[in-house]
Amino acid sequence: MTENECIFSCMVNIAKGKQPFKCLSATFDQIENKCLLYGPGSSADGSVRLKCFS
């Protein structure tokens, strides 16, 4: 998983390579090589976080 692949996953609203996910934002942790996709939700901070890749 690269940072570009992480951002692309958010742009096309797909998580984990095939799961539909309404993505609003993405972050990529280069040290841990993890992609986090953020979508709308009802949690306290107003968003849901989905760890897409490890």
UniProtKB/TrEMBL annotation:
Organism domain of life = Eukaryota
This protein's name: Apple domain-containing protein
Q: What is the lineage of its organism?
A: Eukaryota, Metazoa, Ecdysozoa, Nematoda, Chromadorea
